[in-house]
User: What shape does this take?
Amino acid sequence: MRKPAFQRTLSTTVEFAGVGLHSGEECRVVLYPAKADEGISFRRTDLASRCGDNVIAAIPEHVACANHGTTLTNASGASVATVEHLMAALALTGVDDVLVDVTGPELPILDGSAAPFVGAIAEAGLQKLDARQRPLVIGEVEHVADGDRSITMEPFAGRLLEIEIDFCDCMIGRQSLTLDLDDPKVVARLARARTFCRLYEVEALKNAGLIRGGALSNGIVVDGDRLLNNEPLRDAYEFALHKALDLIGDLYLLGRPVIGRIKAVKPGHDLNTRAALYLKEMQEAAGQPARATA
Assistant: This one.
């Protein structure tokens, strides 16, 4: 088994701005370095604060909604939506501790992938902290399922993600991939994969009050066997890669890397966040805290 690495945070602040995919609202985001064992937290700077009630820890218990994105809400009712791409970027770049200031209810979608986050974090650089990571090591087979959709977690001396999706009604079709999350080339492929939907879903999503900020510049839209975007696919497996990216971001609510083999069949935010909460409960029951604590 690998030796746990030291925790890391940012070397300097990182800033982003853009529109939220679902809310359509502008939001400015600033990532600040944090101390060891502080984990990942979001702070709604547009909300009045008393005793830090505008701070939302990125933990599985705070998942309030997983409908076409992951929304976190704290006990005081402060919330932040569509956190999964930034969470995935933090996981892929190895950031353990960070405070994220946001000026609105939803993180910006940017180009629909995690690449802008990953690139800016890499440019800012990381600093090592005086505390070891506490990887979550899968010790036995764990399984969560919803009909024909499932996430299975097995012991493995590494970080392997096997993913399978099936959209047989359109050009996406069935895709399956095995991804070594310790391979920099795999990380680069994952980061660039954009969110996607089918054209017939757009009207229903808009009627549900979603994708108010959606555009062909921040997501892939498929109509049958046609790609509606002017930009071609960035990868032949971009659809499966993005589903894997979402899963990585949702599982990073655990606050630490997962050592094991994860097999995901038709995953989505609802199943992903259920798996994160299940893993945390299983590890805590075994006497292993599911995230770094002071």
The chain has a mean pLDDT of 94. The radius of gyration is 18 Å.
